[in-house]
Amino acid sequence: MVREIVFDTETTGLSPEKGDRLVEIGAVELINHLPTGRTYHQYINPERDVPEEVVAVHGLTEEFLKDYPVFADIAAEFIDFVGEDGILVAHNATFDMNFINYELKKIGREGYGFDRVVDTLEIARKMFPGAKNNLDALCKRFGVDNSSRTFHGALLDADLLAKVYLELMGGDEPSMLGDAAVKEKHAPVIFSDFKGERIFHEARIFAISEEEEKAHREFLETKVKGSIWLSDESTGTDQ
Fold it and tell me: Which residues span the membrane (predicted)?
């Protein structure tokens, strides 16, 4: 049996080493690449401001986040959800794992080894070299409905990524050859070149017009030099 945790994070910026923090974690459990229905979701008080250009991406303001727990108070439940056997799956995994491990080490906990991490961006780049391989592009390529993705959201993006991941791994049918075939199929994509139950919260619904979306994109292009939200290597799952 292969147990995987497909997850995404939202943050206050790009670098935990420079003071950026997690603001949201969303995760979806898979067994043998198929969803079990178990999910994890948590907003996090970053204990700092959230820059306007980042709020424009995920919609999470300092005011919204201030009453949620800090990472130290939710670390145990996230670790329990991942479990000892969970393989972590993320899109542009370097970004998400750097934040997760930084937060864990900050509170005296051990970070996750990268021998148990799968990077779907690396898989996509090998399958579709030269093509756009961010989450939206992959959803379109595989016919995954992402029409509700007006803002980045960790649980929504984790759910979309889980569907994309199944397609990257060859479709959503269980292997007829059993666990050995699943493990063999899985093994080559472990990312290696780096140095609980559901938690429900009130849904966030954001609707933006085409004009607002265009204005946001123009802002990133003109005001945020080299913005990774416009490239194949943006935060969380938008690669």
Answer: none
- For residue 237, tell me if it sits in a domain: no
Lowest-confidence pick of 33-47, 116-130, 166-180: 166-180
* β 3-11/22-31 pair status: antiparallel
Coil, strand or helix at 96 = helix
The stretch 197-203 carries a mean pLDDT of 35
pLDDT tens column, 209-221: 566 556 556 655 6
Give the residue numbers of the binding site.
Answer: 8, 10, 53, 58, 157
Q: Catalytic site residue 216? A: no
Element (H, E) at 183: helix 179-186
Count structural domains, the chain.
1
Q: How would you list the strands of the sheet with 117-119, edge to edge?
A: 34-43, 22-31, 3-11, 87-90, 117-119
Binding-site residues for a divalent metal cation sit at 8, 10, 157
pLDDT in tens, 58-94: 999 999 999 999 999 999 999 999 999 999 999 999 9
Contact 96, 200 (CB under 8 A): no
Beta strand segments in 95-235, E: 117-119
Instruction: Confirm whether 239 is domain-assigned.
Output: no
Of 33, 41, 91, 152, which is the active-site residue? 152
Domain that includes residue 169, residue range: 3-230
